[in-house]
From TrEMBL:
<protein>
    <recommendedName>
        <fullName>Transcriptional repressor NrdR</fullName>
    </recommendedName>
</protein>
<dbReference type="Pfam" id="PF22811">
    <property type="entry name" value="Zn_ribbon_NrdR"/>
</dbReference>
<comment type="function">
    <text>Negatively regulates transcription of bacterial ribonucleotide reductase nrd genes and operons by binding to NrdR-boxes.</text>
</comment>
<keyword id="KW-0479">Metal-binding</keyword>
<keyword id="KW-0067">ATP-binding</keyword>
<dbReference type="InterPro" id="IPR003796">
    <property type="entry name" value="RNR_NrdR-like"/>
</dbReference>
<dbReference type="InterPro" id="IPR005144">
    <property type="entry name" value="ATP-cone_dom"/>
</dbReference>
<dbReference type="Pfam" id="PF03477">
    <property type="entry name" value="ATP-cone"/>
</dbReference>
<keyword id="KW-0547">Nucleotide-binding</keyword>
<comment type="similarity">
    <text>Belongs to the NrdR family.</text>
</comment>
<keyword id="KW-0863">Zinc-finger</keyword>
<feature type="zinc finger region">
    <location>
        <begin position="3"/>
        <end position="34"/>
    </location>
</feature>
<keyword id="KW-0862">Zinc</keyword>
<keyword id="KW-0238">DNA-binding</keyword>
<keyword id="KW-0804">Transcription</keyword>
<dbReference type="InterPro" id="IPR055173">
    <property type="entry name" value="NrdR-like_N"/>
</dbReference>
<feature type="domain" description="ATP-cone">
    <location>
        <begin position="49"/>
        <end position="139"/>
    </location>
</feature>
Length: 153
């Protein structure tokens, strides 16, 4: 680790502690050249998979895009911000658990639809109508019947 003051390459770890949350390690270091002390943190870096779109192009996963899609489907629906955060967390956990470096956008869409179906049936129908490119009313009716059938089960 380089010293931030003199840029010397050799530093010594004086103290190591785990953060209160348990998600990082705090290290106190001392430069062997200028004798100054500084703190570094180690955190786990989890890489989300790259999203492969229908046309074959690839883009980085962006949580903000996922949130925007959910919020659009949930517009004017009685769903709390906490519930949306939990849904996003579930989707991201599934993406990470897959262990894949690339994920097809269709798979991400299916994960979103699963969470929306759990959160709000109307939002699910809204999202499905765009995601599945409904062409006529019969496709809406089929989706609504599916939701009704699953609600009774």
């Amino acid at each position: 680790m380089k010293c931030p003051y003199c840029h010397h390459d050799e530093t010594q770890v004086i103290d190591t502690r785990i953060s209160e949350e348990g998600d990082s390690i705090r290290r106190r270091r001392r430069c062997s050249s200028c004798d100054k002390r500084f703190t570094t943190y180690e955190r786990i870096e989890l890489a989300m998979p790259v999203i492969v779109k229908k046309n074959g192009s690839r883009s980085e996963y962006e949580s903000s895009k996922l949130r925007a899609s959910l919020m659009l489907a949930l517009r004017k629906r009685p769903v709390s911000a906490e519930a949306v955060d939990t849904a996003i967390q579930h989707i991201e956990e599934k993406l990470l658990a897959s262990g894949e470096r690339e994920i097809i956008s269709g798979h991400l869409g299916e994960l979103v639809m699963r969470e929306l179906k759990r959160l709000d049936k109307i939002a699910y129908i809204r999202f499905a109508s765009v995601y599945k490119s409904f062409e006529d009313v019969s496709e809406f009716v089929e989706a609504i019947q599916e939701v009704k059938k699953n609600s009774r089960a």
